[in-house]
Each structure stands twice: as structure tokens, then as C-alpha cells.
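Lecture 7 notes: from sequence to structure.

We start with a single chain of 99 residues. Read the sequence below before looking at the structure.
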Amino acid sequence: MRWIEHGNADWSQLPAFADKVNTVAEVFARHRPEDERTVEHEAVEVLREFLASFPDHTQKRMLYTLLAAGMDSAQRPHHAAKAQALVNGYAAADPEDES
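Now the structure, written as C-alpha cells:
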């Protein structure tokens, strides 16, 4: 953001700058220290890739609805509510975080 605040910023370079920032962000997002590389982390990555492979919004709604139903069947209503909120297009507020 500091780059944008400079008076002499070359706005024609903004797309290239944004690409570089996205690349750096992706590298940091993928980085996991060796002691944190658990099966759960790998499962999250698999799930993230799977959900990203469905570009259509209605397909994503169906997947989140199935996820919420599965969580509800597993008697995890708190998680099911969060997944259901994703169906509606936003992240659910965590009541435990609002204290």
C-alpha cells in the first residue's frame, strides 16, 4: 500500500505490482513449518482445491449445502451453521469469539 501512497507512483505498473503481491501471498499461504504439516492441513488443501475446481456459484452452493448437512448429521451444529453461512455467501460470526 505504501507504493500507492507515493506521489511518483507509476500507475501503469499497478497490474504487475499486484501480480507480484499475489505471488508472494500465495507463497506465504502455502508455507507450513515441518512441525505443522499435519494430515488436517493436507486435508484442508485438498478440500480447498476441490471447492476451487467448481467455478459456478450454484455448484458451490450445492457443495456447501452438502457439507453443512454432513456436519449436522455428525451432530456438529456449530460447524454446520458456519457451513450454511457459506451457502448464503458470507462467513458466520463465531459466537465464541464475540465474548
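The helical segments are 2-5, 14-30, 39-52, 57-73, 77-87. Keep this in mind for problem set 3.
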